[in-house]
Amino acid sequence: MARDHYEVLGVDKKASDEEIKRAYRKLARDYHPDRNPGDPKAEERFKEIGAAYDVLKDPEKRKEYDAGGIFGGFGRGAGGAPGGFGGGANVGDIFSTIFGRGGRGGPEPMRGRDLETEIRLTFEQAMEGAQIPVTVPKQATCQTCHGDGAAPGTSPVVCPRCEGRGVDAQSQGFFSITQPCPQCGGRGQIIESPCPDCRGTGLTLQRKRYRVNVPAGVKDGTRIRLAGKGEDGPLGGPAGDLFVTTRVAASPVFKRRADGNLEVEVPVTLAEAIGGANIEVPTLRGTKRIRVAPGTQHGTVQRLRGEGPPKPNSRDRGDIHYRLVVEIPKDLDDKQREALAELSRTDGRDPRERILAGARRDAGAGRSEESGKVGAA
After folding, report:
1. Among residues 1, 151, 140, which one has the least CA distance to residue 74?
2. What strands, in cross-sheet order, belong to the sheet with 255-256?
């Protein structure tokens, strides 16, 4: 009897999806074949961990497993009740389990597990798009037995007990109850001479190499689906999918904004901010010139439309926002100090006058209010 999936992952039956995911990732790292080369026990544990997570990560599969349905097997029910008929089991699940496969010649092929991996991109690759190779370990059809689980030169034989149906019928009063054949485990076939490489499972752990087409303009954390590149399904079932998450390196110049556009901090001199200037700024495809208006304030933002990253599912491109940062010189020579003093004399303005006048009005109003209180007393 297979171990309980919660026990395999070392989590409580009330564990959250996030707790289950963390437990799986930790165990998968510890027992990954790359970290345990040539260790068949680690490989079996890796398979067991993957099978448990495949059920518990899916809300519907987990619900059926907890109710003792097809994913929970026939040895346990909700709350551990024998036979999959424990308290709280869904009636539809029970009847689907009992009658769903009778007379159909054994179990249906199961879909292979989905897989996840990550790729790392430079900022330039993310902006322009790229083809990135990725290698993933996966359960794939055994090359020795071609997936039937039998040693070369032999073939699986029809199960003599169920005659290939994969189910065993038992009369229970008014009902004829079917369950997986105990002799062949529901496969409808028996492997008398298991394949030495896959030990009769039809699948072996293999390293597969794919190329991921990364579209232009992807963000960090974008998830790309490669259909049919997950694990091969048991019993000739369809393969799962491979999900690739992008990890984009930061650019020393361009910052990604929440709206998908880019932002660049552009230093300007005090003279350029005061008198105005045409300055050169970087773009994704070179440089362009923008106009700094006379009297530009620190933090002013200017935009170049259509110079940003490509927009998803569109031929259009986003924008680049240039935040102008006025640089104040720290060390001045005598000539610069003289010019600055002359500017201060000719300017004659007090930039703080407005806020000081407001403060004086507030203070005057406060004193009047206090005087009124004293007179009333």
Report:
1. 1
2. 255-256, 262-269, 320-327, 301-304
Q: What are phi and psi of 341, to 5 degrees?
A: -65, -40
Q: Which of 215, 297, 285 is nearest to 254 (CA)?
A: 285
Distance CA 212, CA 113 (A): 19
What pLDDT does 85 receive?
37
| Amino acid (one-letter) located at 242 | L
Copy the structure tokens of residue 137. 């370990």
Element (H, E) at 279: strand 277-283
Query: Of all residues in the chain, what percent carry a pLDDT higher than 90?
Result: 46
Q: Give the pLDDT mean for 299-317.
A: 92
Predicted pLDDT of residue 314:
83
CA 16 to chain centre: 17
Rounded to whole angstroms, how far apart are CA atoms 17 and 2? 22
Quote the tokens at residue 333: 């020579």
What's the distance, CA 49 to chain centroid?
19
- Cα–Cα distance between 148 and 358 in angstroms, integer? 87
Q: Got the DSSP string for 343-372? A: HHHHH---TTHHHHHHHHHHHHHHHHHHHH
What would the two tokens of residue 346 be?
A: 């000719």
Report DSSP state, residue 222: -
For the stretch 316-369, pLDDT in tens is 999 999 999 999 888 888 888 888 888 878 877 777 788 888 788 877 766 666
Residue position matching structure tokens 């490509």: 310
> How far separated are the first and last CA of the chain, in Å rounded?
91
All structural domains of the chain, each given as residue ranges with its CATH number in brackets, are 105-152+194-250 (2.60.260.20), 157-190 (no CATH), 251-367 (2.60.260.20)
- Quick one: pLDDT at residue 89? 38
- The answer to pTM > 0.70 is no
Per-residue pLDDT, averaged over 40-54, amounts to 87
In angstroms, the CA 263 to CA 303 distance is: 9
Here the tokens at position 53 are 């997570």
Q: Per residue in 91-125, is it b (16+ CB within 10 Å) or e — as a string? A: eebbeebbeebeeeebbeeebbbbbebebebebeb
Distance CA 64, CA 82 (A): 15
